[in-house]
């Protein structure tokens, strides 16, 4: 749990060791297979995807979906023994980034099907028989969807209401699922439903594979959104839908764990597409800001515009670094990448939104104009405003930013709790606390010196990140080390100050997580720069981007550190209670 380690002052996992600054190299076979598929996908995207048509008609044409199936794009991550392409997570994410930057709706279709749809929970929890039956279909022909959300149940799925009542060897499903991505066109569904406890049935939230063609399954509405207009997202009703027990994934009661575990690795797809969006934004920003002249020079040469381009370039570099590292860790199955995936999702979705917003600004009035309108008056059809709309949902679904903050913060605080133990538990007696204090004191005695004066304080640490002729990245890595310890100290201080109320301090918790995300991204960017340099792949440019990113990230992290203790959180709470009670009206505060 890198984040937990981070809070304790240890290094986040991607931070390189002194002897090996590069992440492990992927197997040559995986690379060959991955590159071959990317080349095919690129050709397909360039010649057979009409993104403007998808946006105009709010639908991915049948022939495009057929082409994707023929290409094997439905089974990118499915093992070759089931007819899939068997790509690694690294190449799967590269492919999603490529497809998603051409058409975000296609990216969402492929990702919802493979990252959270039927293949992923079956891979993790399915029986051999279920894999044999469904994975070949998922790899080539069948689109799938993941149905967890309901009208009354969003971020807190533990209260879901859809039921699965045992009936002989089957279950009967009843309920309504909302916002089912792919649900309108899917052949197969993963459905989370509650089994009532009864004789011989443990009950609880349980996962099922359901054939959409089953009697009693109705798509009641196709939903339309601010962006992702090609998304086939609906409301699906289940009325006495008979599902054989053989279609149950895992035991009764394991559904929530299956759903959350599926989302854990599934979350990597989304930041991969955010990195793709960053690359696209950079390309458009570069082309436009060089060509467009105002006040006698290209707008890129005006400092205010240049700063935006630098931000997009540096952030895209870092996002790619984060996603590559997290994907490599996922490929080494032994790694628990829950926290890294959550950090990548949180950071990727927030930063991609900022980058797309800056792109709209760089494009000026043309940034706000639709691609169709630009084309109609003879200009290049650049869908910058569409990119912004399409990206907005990433901060909401697959775990909103607020929920990601809580999930990551909980891990961090848990790590500290396990150290301090009973010391800060408000329910413990004074005597228990005394015992815990003695124990914790012993622990801190050997730990605090490391916390306060680790290698990050020493000059010249990380010398391998200071190669001749390149910007020096070593001070940034030392900053990461120092800041990790500072975060640990701040967290301990907050725990002793707020004790049991700590989890209600969401402003504080979100800031420590956001600082952690900046440190994680800084480490990843430095490692990536060194990896590219050591491969002879534009090392100087990579070092420059990593340096720029780290300098920008440090300013953000320092600002967040300041706001840990100087903020309006208490005042905001009072304002909210006034607003909710009706005492504070808009007009009186205006
Ligand atoms: C386009 C689209 C596609 C989707 N695809 C799917 C899909 O394929 N499958 C599926 O199952 N679902 C899907 N969803 C649902 C999506 O995952 C939910 O919208 C998301 O989980 C948030 O739930 P909610 O919208 O009910 O918001 P709520 O849970 O009602 O939250 C509203 C706001 O309150 C915040 N909030 C909630 N709880 C807390 C808390 N404890 N602390 C702080 N803040 C909190 C949230 O972050 C949010 O800002 C999709 C939604 C959309 C719009």
If you had to describe this structure to a student in words, what would you say it looks like?
This protein has helices at 2-7, 28-48, 51-57, 62-71, 89-102, 104-116, 119-125, 128-140, 255-266, 269-291, 303-331, 338-363, 365-368, 371-376, 384-392, 401-420, 430-452, 474-498, 506-534, 539-565, 569-581, 586-589; strands at 144-147, 163-167, 170-181, 188-195, 204-211, 217-222, 233-244, 248-249, 293-294, 297-298. With 590 residues, it is of the alpha+beta class. It has four domains: 28-140, Acyl-CoA dehydrogenase/oxidase, N-terminal domain (Butyryl-Coa Dehydrogenase, subunit A, domain 1, Orthogonal Bundle); 144-258, Butyryl-CoA Dehydrogenase, subunit A, domain 2 (Beta Barrel), CATH 2.40.110.10; 263-401, Butyryl-CoA Dehydrogenase, subunit A, domain 3, CATH 1.20.140; 404-576, no CATH class. Strand 2 and strand 3 (170-181) form a beta hairpin. The longest helix has 29 residues, at 303-331. The model is unreliable at 1-22 and 436-454 (pLDDT under 50). Flavin-adenine dinucleotide (FAD) binds next to strand 1, strand 3 and helix 16.
Task: Describe the structure using short key phrases.
Butyryl-CoA Dehydrogenase, subunit A, domain 2, 58% helix, binds flavin-adenine dinucleotide, 10 strands, 22 helices, Butyryl-Coa Dehydrogenase, subunit A, domain 1, 590 residues, four-stranded antiparallel sheet, Butyryl-CoA Dehydrogenase, subunit A, domain 3, single chain
The overall pLDDT, averaged over residues, is 88
Distance between the termini: 46 Å
Q: Uncertain regions: pLDDT < 50 for 5+ in a row? A: 1-22, 436-454
Number of strands: 10
Oligomer: single chain
> How much strand content do the residues show?
5-15%
- In spatial order, strands of the major sheet run 1-4-5-8
Radius of gyration computed on alpha carbons: 25 Å
Share of helix, binned: 55-70%
Number of domains: 4
In this entry the ligands are: flavin-adenine dinucleotide
* Main sheet makeup: 4 strands, mixed
Q: Choose one word for the global shape.
A: globular
Secondary structure tally, helices: 22
Secondary-structure-based class equals alpha+beta
Keywords: FAD, Flavoprotein, Oxidoreductase
GO molecular function, one term: flavin adenine dinucleotide binding
Domain Acyl-CoA dehydrogenase/oxidase N-terminal: 35-140
Domain Acyl-CoA oxidase/dehydrogenase middle: 145-241
